[in-house]
Design brief:
The complex is a heterodimer of chains A (93) and B (501). Chain A has 93 residues and is mostly helical. Chain A contains three helices and two strands. In chain A, strands 1-2 form a two-stranded antiparallel ribbon. In chain A, a hairpin with a 2-residue loop joins strand 1 and strand 2. The longest helix of chain A has 18 residues. Chain B has a single domain, classed as Amidase signature (AS) enzymes (Alpha-Beta Complex). Chain B is built from 15 helices and eleven strands. The chains are: A mainly alpha (93), B alpha/beta (501). The interface between A and B is large, with 50 and 69 residues.
Chain lengths: 93, 501
């Protein structure tokens, strides 16, 4: 069971906004999908490790050598609002 | 430019000469001088002009760039060329191509021009391939029908009222419609194999780590893998060899154990194929079952042994996937905040409002839905119940596959439980859409290589056969698929409605 308040809370965490109509659609959809995935709680998996990557690798290292990166200009070129080589954003809160 | 009609190429209606051409055939035509690189590229551009109004597989056709690249090839003496130099290719719009708009079929990336090449793009450039353009997809690769594109609905060349599958639907439709000899896609839960199956082409998802993901817009980083969509297995092997390799820019990459080479196997003697019991019978529609049954018979006729094998955990694959993939996606898509690239909501009063409005306007319905599922699953109090439980289920699936590979060389199933469905049929029911990836998802969770090859038709629509191998068994998998392909004799050239033959 996912309440309307929970949906709104999760939306805030995800930096998303939904209007009334969208919320009315989303809540039962999420409930249906979460209801489906909840089948995993039936499984007894107590002895099993979690897998985050199926092909195990550890400590992938390379020599720490300087190399050419993007120029400042190229890195900023897609910015929606750029001034004096910096990204401009609205004030915080 | 060479007068093509003098070489026996270019004699038909515009673009018709390239219908059904494989990349290998393109290479032969180029190296024997029967067609110039410009002539070949022009013929594909003509073909795109003739059919893409119906198929709608391309989001961007780079006519100028493609012709310039082809002209550069023609300017080189044959002796100085790479083997694949001058062969055109189509690219899913998820790869960073320096200077070419890359949108992931999302409004939030509209106008984004990557300042660098993805590793696979750099490899294709080094091999001399000609980029025809960017192909449609489900937004951020989330979907099974390509209907989640913010820009257009791609149509299945075998029946324009049906979906091409997804998320690499543009890539599959483009190859099926001969709008490129081959294309690249990505596969997170079936996004290469399922559209390949629905469009009647070959689609290969390599072992996780075989191909670098650097410059691929990330969806679910532990599952995403790049791979070829082609007309046959020989082309799939060739394209895999071009793009595979360990890359210092992707620390999860390993490369292939051995190059795939040129598949030539014609019999299947000595090979054991496990038919995944849970993915046949009632799990799939009768027409698909029938085609799958004939493929099993063909394996037998070629000397292979088929036996049923049970992998009970694969039935939990979708549930595990729809926790793991959205969780990873919710983290990966946090970067789309309107600060550094892409869409930004104008006129926000503060930063929080700017983030929220930018993301709400820029993302489509399915992407938002998955971000919500992932954020919910990872949020305080739910992490262990959902995400950790899904990761344990993933371990269970890996163990089931490992056990099956003790007894079998390869595992087989239908690629998709159904043939291509009608456009609009499943858009209102997200869970029904998710279930169409039943047969392909477990392969991603276990990081295995999987291939879909055309196996036949049900009611006029293509049906694919999925073959799954152990980690890094691509060469053997392609050899076995090649043997089957030679004997299944499946036609791969659709007659597209409204397009002169």
């Amino acid at each position: 069971m996912i309440t309307r308040r929970e949906v709104e809370h999760v939306a805030r965490l995800a930096r998303l906004h939904f209007d009334e109509e969208e919320l009315a659609r989303l809540q039962p959809e999420l409930e249906q999908i979460i209801g489906y995935v909840e089948q995993l709680s039936e499984l007894d998996l107590s002895g099993l490790e979690t897998t985050s990557h199926a092909v195990a690798l550890k400590n992938v290292l390379r020599p720490d050598e300087p190399r050419e990166g993007l120029s400042h200009e190229a890195a900023m070129a897609n910015g929606p609002d750029v001034e004096r080589g910096q990204f401009v954003v609205p004030k915080i809160g | 430019m060479t007068a093509l009609s003098d070489t026996g190429f270019g004699g038909g209606t515009a673009g018709s000469d390239v219908v059904g051409l494989t990349a290998w055939r393109c290479r032969e035509l180029l190296s024997s001088g029967q067609v110039s690189a410009q002539g070949l590229t022009r013929a594909y551009l003509d073909r795109i002009a003739a059919v893409d109004g119906q198929v709608k597989s391309y989001l961007l056709v780079d006519e100028e760039g493609a012709m310039a690249a082809a002209a550069a090839v023609d300017a080189k003496p044959f002796s100085a060329r790479q083997p694949w130099e001058g062969v055109p290719i189509g690219l899913k719009d998820i790869f960073a191509v320096k200077g070419m708009e890359t949108t992931c079929a999302s409004k939030i990336l509209k106008g984004y021009i990557p300042p660098y090449d993805a590793t696979i793009i750099a490899k294709l450039r080094a091999a001399g391939l000609v980029f025809l353009g960017k192909l449609n997809m489900d937004e951020f690769a989330m979907g099974s029908s390509t209907e989640n594109s913010a820009y257009q609905t791609t149509r299945n060349p075998w029946d324009l009222d049906r979906v091409p599958g997804g998320s690499s639907g543009g890539s599959a439709a483009c190859v099926a419609a001969s709008e490129a000899p081959w294309a690249l896609g990505t596969d997170t839960g079936g996004s290469i194999r399922q559209p390949a199956s629905l469009c009647g082409v070959v689609g290969l998802k390599p072992t996780y780590g075989a191909v670098s993901r650097y410059g691929l817009v990330a969806f679910a980083s532990s599952l995403d893998q790049i791979g070829p969509l082609t007309r046959d297995t020989k082309d799939a092997a060739a394209l895999l060899d071009i793009i595979a390799g360990k890359d210092p820019l992707d620390s999860t990459s390993l490369g292939l154990r051995e190059p795939a080479g040129i598949p030539s196997r014609s019999a299947l003697e000595g090979l054991r194929f496990g038919v995944i019991k849970e993915l046949v019978g009632d799990a799939v529609e009768p027409g698909v079952s029938e085609v799958f049954g004939s493929a099993v018979d063909t394996i037998g006729a070629l000397g292979g042994v088929c036996e049923e094998v049970s992998l009970p955990s694969v039935m939990r694959g979708i549930a595990a996937y729809y926790l793991i993939a959205p969780s990873e996606a919710s983290a990966n898509l946090a970067r789309f905040d309107g600060v550094r690239y892409g869409h930004r909501h104008a006129g926000s009063h503060d930063l929080y409002e700017m983030y929220t409005r930018t993301r709400s306007e820029g993302f489509g319905t399915e992407v938002k839905r998955r971000i919500m599922i992932g954020t919910y699953a990872l949020s305080a109090g739910y992490y262990d119940a959902y995400y950790a439980q899904a990761q344990r289920t993933r371990t269970l699936i890996i163990k089931d596959f490992a056990r099956a590979f003790e007894d079998f060389d390869y595992l087989i199933s239908p690629t998709s439980p159904t043939v291509a469905f009608k456009i609009g049929e499943k858009v209102a029911d997200p869970l029904a859409m998710y279930l169409s990836d039943l047969c392909t998802i477990p392969v991603n969770l276990a990081a295995l290589p999987g291939i879909s090859i055309p196996a036949g038709f049900s009611a006029g629509m293509p049906v694919g056969l999925q073959l799954i191998g152990p980690h890094f068994s691509e060469k053997g998998l392609l050899e076995a698929s090649h043997a089957l392909e030679q004997h299944l004799h499946v036609p791969t050239v659709p007659v597209i409605k409204g397009v002169a033959a």
